[in-house]
Amino acid sequence: MCGRYASILPPDVIARVFGTNGPWPNYEITWNMAPTKSAPIVVRDHETGERRIEVAKWGLVPFFTKDLAKARKPINARCETVARTPMFRDGFARRRCLVPVAAYYEWRHDPTGKTPFAIAQKGGEPLAFGGVWEEWRSPDGETLHTFATMTTEANPELALIQDRMPVIIEEADWPVWLGEAEGDALALMHSLPFDRLRVWPVSQTVNSVKHDGPELLEPHNAAADEPALL
């Protein structure tokens, strides 16, 4: 399960990498994106067919929600059930999105506590999490945009840290995922091979959402018995 990531890509970089059009929204970059915070996502405009950058809160609020205060607001959806779970199935069918990510964090449960790791693409390119988004409207016209990210079984190497990992959509598959081209979106939800990823231990400073800054991604001294994959 992914519960934190670095959302540090400015809108001009997202526009260039993901090929979006339209105005660039304002949002705050953060090295410690957490649930309930607002983040940029890439969606397909159903009227123009173009990609655009939207800002949404991490934690899905389905359009049919009656009481916002009591809503669950899940941040992740399991790829195995997303197409049939009532909370996600309509969004998966009609409102899939890409979530631009510089790196994400996972925690390994060790005898001495939780050890945090950062995970990114080896080449430095942004990751594109597969997600679904929603637009919720209150009776008095308030609009709220939210999203959730997909998870899948971790590849064997990352399973040494956590048994789940985010669904990472490869660039060649972005048109299918966004609904621009025909294809099976379910088939795109699999673990990215480990040889495409870089994994390194980071400081426990990242454990608290109060901490934010580039130092969160700095490598932290690993113990002598760390597994070879690190």
How would you sum up this structure, described in words?
The protein is mainly beta and 230 residues long. The chain has three helices and twelve strands. Strand 7 (103-110) and strand 8 (113-121) form a beta hairpin. The longest helix is centred in the N-terminal third of the chain and has 8 residues, at 11-18. The radius of gyration is 17 Å and the shape is globular. The chain starts with a strand and ends in a 29-residue tail after the last strand. Mean pLDDT is 93; it is low at 224-230.
Low-confidence stretches: 224-230
- SS element count, helices: 3
N→C terminal distance = 19 Å
Using the alpha-carbon principal axes, give the shape: globular
State the CATH superfamily name. Answer: SOS response associated peptidase-like
Please describe the structure with a list of short key phrases separated by commas or semicolons.
mainly beta, single chain, hypothetical protein yedk fold, five-stranded antiparallel beta sheet, 230 residues, disordered C terminus
